[in-house]
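User: Round two. Same drill as before: sequence, then structure, for each protein.

Assistant: Same drill it is. First protein:
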Amino acid sequence: QVQLVESGGGLVEAGGSLRLSCAASGRTSSSYVMGWFRQAPGKEREFVAGIRWSGGSPSYADSVKGRFTISRDNAKNTVYLQMNSLKPEDTAVYSCAAHPVPLATMAKAYQWDYWGQGTQVTVSS
């Protein structure tokens, strides 16, 4: 099993920044794909960013390109989401996800096997 624990959420002003962390434990390997999703009340869960443990180019939703950066620290088994220039529409519960093998597309939440509990991000205007 893989356990995922998110942290770093909170309340920030529009234009501000937050850094989310996802600590993974268990048998992760270089084949794993890690990602971030978000879900606002009344809306569908939305793909935000994804990256492979082994490297390669990360993927981003169009709505966050240029503002958010996903990264990883293999020694700490941790994935990060640096969020800059935050907007009120970024307000959501952000969840970390993991999958043991590469996905043809990362955007479909139901294809991912492991999930964290989520952390609330609120951007005030």
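Second protein:
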Amino acid sequence: QVQLVESGGGLVQAGSSLRLSCVTSERTFRSTAMGWFRQPSGKVREFVAAMSWSGNTTYYVDSVKGRFTVSRDNAKNTVYLQMNSLKPEDTGVYYCAARKKGGTYSARAAYDYWGQGTQVTVSS
């Protein structure tokens, strides 16, 4: 079974930073492209950030551009989401996910595998 294991969430004050990590198997990492979604309490899960199959292009929802950065470490089969200048509206459960080549990076349906989620809470 394909597994994605997340870590790095927590409770922080506005303006601070967090880095989320998501590790998977080498086989899964090399055969998929990674993305990040978040789900505020009571709301739908929404796209946050992703990278292209090659890793040369990154994509972000408008609300996080300039503050969040998605990256990966191929040697560790790990994808990261660096979150800076956090705002209360960034609060939610963050999920990493993996899609097959050719999938639409911002579409939930394009992602075949999902992590368990990690809670990020930003206080004002």
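The two ends are 40 Å apart (CA to CA).

User: Perfect.
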